[in-house]
Write a structure and sequence with these properties.
By secondary structure, the protein is α/β, with parallel strands linked by helices. It has helices at residues 7-17, 20-26, 34-44, 89-100, 114-120, 135-147, 166-171, 181-187, 191-198, 218-228, 235-245, 257-265, 287-298, 313-321, 331-362, and strands at 63-65, 68-70, 74-76, 105-106, 126-130, 153-156, 249-254, 270-273, 303-307, 327-329. Helix content is 43%, strand content 10%.
């Protein structure tokens, strides 16, 4: 096997091993994919200031996210269908995160259920929730999250309606799936993936099937989800979720300063500057470009995190320097999982951590808590 040195190596391997329809699901954006590409490209415009003759011993990347200790300012983002990238994918990713010492966030649209992940891990994980019309279903899900010992809830605000992703339509990735002949033929070339799937019973949306009234299989799930994403979502609904949950609440999908201010008023514990990985509003700002203004407006009142485009530890450090006190990685994790299962997720985290640690040292710092905009070359970053 080739030596894995960066996240791109994992992506290339995942593309070879994961069926096309599921690889494309994770590695795509909406419409022209302009925002998806900008998320990554805009990091590259930001240049670092190298410092020398500085003692680089005893480095630390440790911090806290909503009061929870983490080895680096990184958490694994909630990604739907993670369990189709690799058999039992969410369990494997959660185990890798726990061993590494960072938070794992389970998606509502995961393949492995809340209970599956809780049974296979010991560290508390976080859960991502979508606002549904069926409020009783939400109450029940929040109660399941509480019973599982989750210590933070992530409410996604930018999926009231679903952006069109051309690749999913062309691949027939619907619920239930209606794969094309090309994708069926592609599936036959992925024996490693097929063998893994043959060895697990987890092939559907574990948090919903059998837990929501009237949802017993993929077909009934399809009709339920088509009706359930709530386009009426308002700040009053955020308050309702906060009251139902009662614990740490993170709001994901903030791209605008005015919305960030409203998030502070809602009493949330943190916000995630995010455009859903470029999968919703194509033509929106990249997350790293939107970050500084939001930090300037509310960073002293609430923890500001970001996601979108992070493919290296240097990206994490740049986001931190611009005021993000946490980052979420989705695709970097997915690439690792699709490439090598749990070991691949671990490898992705090792790569990001090493890049973060060494880059911090080259910029003249040994503790991430002392890093600020001073490590960035003036005129190369958004202000």
């Amino acid at each position: 096997m080739a030596v894995i040195t960066n996240i791109e190596d994992l992506r290339v391997l995942a593309e070879k091993r994961v069926p096309r329809m599921f690889y494309d699901y994770a590695d795509s954006g909406s419409w022209t994919e302009g925002t998806y590409r900008a998320n990554e490209a805009d990091f590259q415009k930001i240049k670092l200031r190298q410092r020398v003759a500085v003692n680089m011993e005893n480095r630390s990347t440790a911090t806290q996210m909503v009061g929870i200790k983490t080895k680096m300012p990184v958490a694994i983002a909630p990604v739907g269908l993670t369990g189709m990238q690799c058999a039992d994918g969410e369990i494997k990713a959660a185990k890798a995160a726990e061993k590494f010492g960072i938070p794992f966030i389970l998606s509502t649209m995961s393949i492995c259920s809340i209970e599956d992940v809780a049974a296979n891990t010991t560290a508390p994980f976080w859960f991502q929730l979508y606002m549904m019309r069926d409020r009783q279903a939400m109450v029940n899900m929040i109660e399941r999250v509480r019973k599982a010992g989750c210590n933070a809830l992530v409410l996604t605000l930018d999926l009231q309606v679903i952006g069109q992703r051309h690749k999913d339509l062309k691949n027939g990735l619907t619920a239930p799936p209606s794969p094309t002949i090309a994708n069926i033929l592609n599936l036959m070339t992925k024996p490693r993936w097929c063998l893994g799937m043959a060895g697990t019973r987890r092939h559907t949306f574990g948090n919903l099937v059998g837990h929501v009234k009237g949802v017993s299989n993929m077909r009934s799930l399809a009709s339920w989800t088509n009706e359930q994403f709530d386009p009426r979502l308002s700040w009053a609904d955020v308050a309702w979720v906060k009251e139902q949950w009662g614990g740490k609440l993170i709001l994901k999908g903030i791209q605008d300063v005015e919305d960030a201010k409203l998030a502070v008023q809602s009493g949330a514990d943190a916000i995630v500057v995010s455009n859903h990985g470029g999968r919703q509003l194509d033509g929106a700002q990249s997350s790293i470009e939107a970050l500084p203004a939001i930090v300037e407006a509310v960073g002293s009142q609430i923890e500001v995190w970001m996601d979108g485009g992070i493919r290296s530890g240097q990206d994490v450090l740049k986001a931190w320097a611009l005021g993000a006190r946490g980052t979420l990685i989705g695709r970097a994790m997915v690439y690792g999982l699709g490439a090598m299962g749990e070991a691949g997720v671990t490898r992705a985290l090792e790569i990001i951590h090493k890049e973060l640690d060494i880059t911090m040292a080259f910029c003249g710092h040994t503790d991430i808590q002392t890093v600020g905009k001073g490590i960035l070359l003036p005129g190369t970053f958004p202000v």
